[in-house]
UniProtKB/TrEMBL annotation:
Alphabetized InterPro entries for the sequence: DNA-SBD_ScoMcrA, HNH, HNH_nuc, ScoMcrA_N
One GO MF term: zinc ion binding
Parts forming coiled coils: none
Name the UniProt record assigns to this protein: HNH nuclease domain-containing protein
Pfam families membership: DNA-SBD_ScoMcrA (PF26340), HNH (PF01844), ScoMcrA_N (PF26345)
Gene3D superfamilies recorded: 1.10.30.50
Annotated ranges, domain HNH nuclease: 311-372
Length: 410
């Protein structure tokens, strides 16, 4: 690799090639994706900085175009962007410019294609995703050397691969990479498909790639509780319906769902409870997609119980800002749980057993006393009518629009 030898001549040739082919065809021909942050501005048009530099390398005498995974080559401030600036080109920084839209990205995760057997859907990819999600939640490094990934996933497949899964972490990693969910670095492209056997195993053993969740996926799992919970709901509902996922969730650090809820005591920092309207709207879209598949379903274990959404519960608690959503509440307990959560219970105003929806528009956060009145008090029918209006109004304003809900001041 000879980045230092690239001049304006090679860069302009790469720009001409991009103009001739069109952006998408140019990126595809060189194996690149759209730039995530740094864009080259030339002639009033924007170009993907890393792809342009990679293609320009191929115009040097005796050299080939660089692949996206070429060792030591990145599109960041210290590589492609720095080179372009040194050559006198304008480079603009647009955080997240190349990331796929949130809904598109999550759709890739919630519509996984997996192999099926007589025992049901294979668990390779769900297990790998849940492991990586747990790592993101804890803020652990996004990318790991292949031996560490291999060891961790082998152990999980050994413990939880109950549908005939072999101890082959290369299967889910290669497949998730083709889904644009998993990133592999320091290795040649293309990565073999997950349908091989000896060839795929040999490829990973030979190249020892550095890998992990694609950066935008990791960031959403790390920073968006509602995204994390909605994906968890989808994976568990799709792949573990007839299984007990608790041991797996404990092993990957996702067993304590309560820890993902808002936890700042409302008497100390009520603003921490605010959820943006955009986040609330995105969360509701994810809830609605899942609800369209689970409405009316029951999970059969020792009892029959409705399928419920962790994400919907999280949205309601966030919307409440830690206060009872009954406008007539006379005072909720000032105490909090041992996790610093207010003593609130999320309730379905219209019972699921009676056809109610598992959706924030029909759910409220209530203190224990108001919950008891709504459930068995003499005035429960009147209160239910009020609470249904409250739920719909709060939902319509995207989580409350950033204003504190009516109710007692703690």
């Amino acid at each position: 690799m000879a980045l230092a030898d690239i001049s304006r001549v090679e860069i302009e040739k790469a720009i001409e090639e991009c103009d001739r082919l069109g952006r998408d065809a140019f990126l595809k021909s060189h194996g690149f994706r759209r730039a995530r942050r740094y864009l080259l501005v030339h002639g009033g048009r924007h170009y993907d900085s890393k792809a342009i530099v990679g293609a320009a390398h191929g115009f040097l005498p005796g050299e080939r175009a660089l692949s996206p995974d070429a060792k030591g080559f990145s599109g960041g401030a210290e590589h492609a962007a720095r080179l372009l600036k040194r050559l006198g080109f304008d480079v603009v920084e647009e955080p997240g410019a190349g990331d796929p839209p949130h809904d598109e990205l999550i759709s890739r995760i919630t519509h996984l294609k997996v192999n099926r057997s007589a025992n049901g859907r294979a668990l390779y990819k769900p297990i790998a995703l849940l492991w990586a999600m747990g790592r993101a939640l804890r803020g652990e490094p996004r990318l790991l050397p292949w031996p560490e990934t291999e060891e961790a996933l082998k152990d999980l497949l050994r413990r939880h691969g109950v549908r005939g899964e072999r101890l082959r972490p290369d299967y889910p990693v290669a497949s998730l990479h083709r889904d644009d969910i998993w990133e592999l670095r320091d290795c040649p492209r293309p990565v073999p498909t997950a349908h091989g056997d000896a060839q795929l195993k040999r490829w990973f053993a030979t190249h020892q790639p550095l890998g992990g969740l694609a950066e935008p996926v990791y960031d959403r799992f790390r920073h968006s509780a509602v995204t994390r919970l909605a994906v968890l709901d989808e994976l568990l509902g799709t792949f573990f319906e007839d299984l007990d996922p608790a041991p797996l969730l404990a092993d990957v650090g996702l067993d304590d769902v309560e820890s993902a809820e808002p936890h700042t005591p409302p008497d100390r920092a009520p603003e921490q409870w605010l959820i943006t309207a955009a986040e609330y709207e995105r969360g509701c879209r994810l809830v609605e997609e899942q609800e369209s598949k689970t409405h009316g379903r029951r999970v059969s274990r020792t009892t029959h119980r409705p399928v419920r959404s962790r994400a919907a519960r999280y949205l309601v608690l966030s919307r409440s800002q830690g206060r009872c959503e009954n406008p007539g509440c006379t005072g909720q307990p000032a105490d909090v749980t041992d996790r610093d959560h207010p003593l609130l219970e999320v309730d379905h105003v219209v019972d699921l057993a009676l056809g109610g929806r598992d959706h924030p528009s029909q759910m409220v956060a209530l203190c224990p006393n108001c919950h008891a009145v709504k459930t068995r008090g003499r005035t429960r029918e009147t209160l239910r009518e009020t609470l249904l209006k409250v739920a719909m109004e709060r939902h319509a304003t995207g989580g409350g629009g950033g204003t504190a809900p009516p109710g007692p001041s703690l």
